[in-house]
Amino acid sequence: MAHPPAQARADAIPHWYGDDDVLTLVDGDGVTVYDDEGDAYLDFISQLYCVNAGHGEDRIVDAITEQASKLSYVASSKGNDARSALAARIADVAPGDLGDVYFSVSGSEANESAVQFAREFTGGRKVLTRYRSYHGATYGAASLTGDPETRNAMGRQAETTGAAKFLPPLTHHSPFDGDTPEEVARQAADHLEYVIHNEGPDSVAAVLMEPVGGTSGAYPAPADYWQRVRDVCDEYGVLLIADEVITGFGRCGEWFGIETEDVVPDLLTFAKGATSAYVPLAGVITSPELSAHLHDSGIDVGQTFAGHPLACAAGVAAMDVYADGLIENARARSAHLESRLRDLDAHDAVGDVRGRGLLWAVEFTDPETGDPFHHPWIESGDNPVDDVIDEAERRGVLVGGGRPRTQVVVAPPLPVTDAEIDTAVDALDEAIAAVF
Q1: Which fold has domain 6-56+327-435?
Q2: What is the DSSP code string of 247-310?
Q3: Domain ranges in the chain with CATH number 3.90.1150.10
Q4: How far is the C-alpha of 47 from the C-alpha of 147, rounded, in Å?
Q5: Which of 161, 162, 133, 163 is nearest to 149 (CA)?
Q6: Boundaries of CATH 3.40.640.10 in the chain?
Q7: Contact 261, 41 (CB under 8 A)
């Protein structure tokens, strides 16, 4: 086969790439990023829900530089002072009695590791995850993901077994008929128990869920749902895994999103905000029982770049930055962000606004039917939500597309100000008016 000229091939291939023009970003400061033509954008998606400390944070950069000048890499099978320091810092803020940390590289790999540990600990082979969830795009993590676009894209090549799905506790366009959030919580937890019964309790190793839906639309669970799920898991000897890849490290106004649910999971996965995405890093925080099991039985697999010293140094510095007022700022700014986003209800096309902390979604529905204008999972054609995202970008604001893309997701870095929120939501307001 003839190859195209070298200059036609010498470029990076973007992820999640379609036919749209790709924005090229070259600089950033705080909540603002700049493209290769010098245009500024308010980054109200934190790139991929991960630059929690904002762009250009010198304390993180300096920590990376200092570590690189001492020792740039240590094998993941060895000990390292930066690695131990970060593990200790994470244990200090982890929920309940969660403690020891197993580091990995990406959120997908962290979720796969947590599932591996759960299967080995319980002897069960199945992991239950929600429809309308996202847990990663490697083969194993994609099988856990409830988003059919991701799951089917990977499954076309190799189907991974051992994952089953259950319905999410949505209160808007809910699969349940409860009249109140409390009734939905009860019905959704009863449904999960029904699925466990039908899968066979002894075959189920774990339930894996996000405390607040991430790219699936920033939906928080109704009151008491997590407590009910914890009770169901305890009754049948099933482990509970909290996927905090997006919700961790201040995104929802606390160190971890699960803290607002008064529940302690058996395993907690993290990534993204752990270093404010300055260096790739992820991991699993384990309960004392799981930790003792892992130390006793050993782990037969690993990853070359897991717990990379530069990443761990960045993580310690990022935690310093978060503790120095950023998590408090996220909590304080949440009310203003919510208030301004709820103002968008004035548009007939806005069907729902939901979220927690600095993670929110705006969903668009036909006011006559209550259904999405376009549902990309079940139909082809032009999607007006894509147009809203493009119009916001033209006005200097970056927002994300949810899963499904019937919504936009808004998730600014934690140092965001009320003035920046006003500017961004005004631009989104104009974008919605331009499209609908």
Answers
A1: Aspartate Aminotransferase, domain 1 (3.90.1150)
A2: TTTTTTSSSSGGGGGT---SEEEE-GGGGTTSS--EEEEE-HHHHHHHHHH--S---TTTT-HH
A3: 6-56+327-435
A4: 20
A5: 133
A6: 58-321
A7: no
| Helices first, then strands: H and E counts in the chain | 14, 15
Tokens of 261: 């649910």
Q: What pLDDT is stored for residue 218 in this prediction?
A: 96
Tokens representing 377 are 């999972």
Beta bridge partners of 269: 243, 284
- Confidence at residue 20, expressed as pLDDT on a 0 to 100 scale: 65
Residue 213's Cβ-count burial label (10 Å; 0-12, 13-18, 19+) is buried
- CA terminus-to-terminus distance, the chain: 47
Q: Which residue has the tokens 């259904």?
A: 371
Mean pLDDT to the nearest integer, 429-436: 98
Question: What CATH code would you report for 58-321?
Answer: 3.40.640.10
CA distances from 116 to 94, 109, 242, 247 (A): 21, 10, 14, 22
DSSP string, 52-113: TT-BT-HHHHHHHHHHHHH-S---TTS--HHHHHHHHHHHHHSSTT---EEEESSHHHHHHH
Q: Are 122 and 135 in contact (CB under 8 A)?
A: no
SS3 7: helix
Buried b / exposed e across 295-330, counting CB within 10 Å, b at 16+?
eeeeeeeeeebbbbbbbbbbbbbbbebbeeebbebb
Q: Model's pTM, two decimal places? A: 0.94
Q: Indicate whether 8 pLDDT > 90.
A: no
Non-local (6+) Cβ contacts of 37 within 8 A are none
**Span 159-215, pLDDT tens digits:** 778 899 999 999 888 899 999 999 999 999 999 999 999 999 999 999 999 999 999
Structure tokens at 380: 């082809």
Q: Give 70-90 pLDDT, tens digit per residue.
A: 999 999 999 999 999 999 999
**What's the pLDDT tens digit per position in 102-138?**
999 999 999 999 999 999 999 999 999 999 999 998 8
Give the mean pLDDT of the chain: 94
